[in-house]
Amino acid sequence: MYSSFVYILRCVRNGSSTYYTGMTNNPKRRYMEHKRLRNKYTKRFHGNLYMEYLEEFQHRDKKKARQISHQRELKIKTFSRKKKHNMIELHRNRSNAIMERTIRR
Fold it and tell me: What would the CATH number be for the domain defined by 2-102?
């Protein structure tokens, strides 16, 4: 089985925060790239960066797993800030379990 992930990062700077939604097949590597400002999309984030949400998609076909997660990423990007926040809170336990298994090992 191949895995692909959708994630939401929260950047906190000067008391305000911004959400960034993305996808990857390696959440640990991707998070570190964002933290080191090695990504053209998050270079504008100059604050503390937190992984707030992580969702995993598995499929026996690598291309299909990526396609499914990309569709989910695009859907989440249409959400309002409040809807993203509510989704993060609602699925915090599940996200933390996935993060524990994939990032914090």
Answer: 3.40.1440
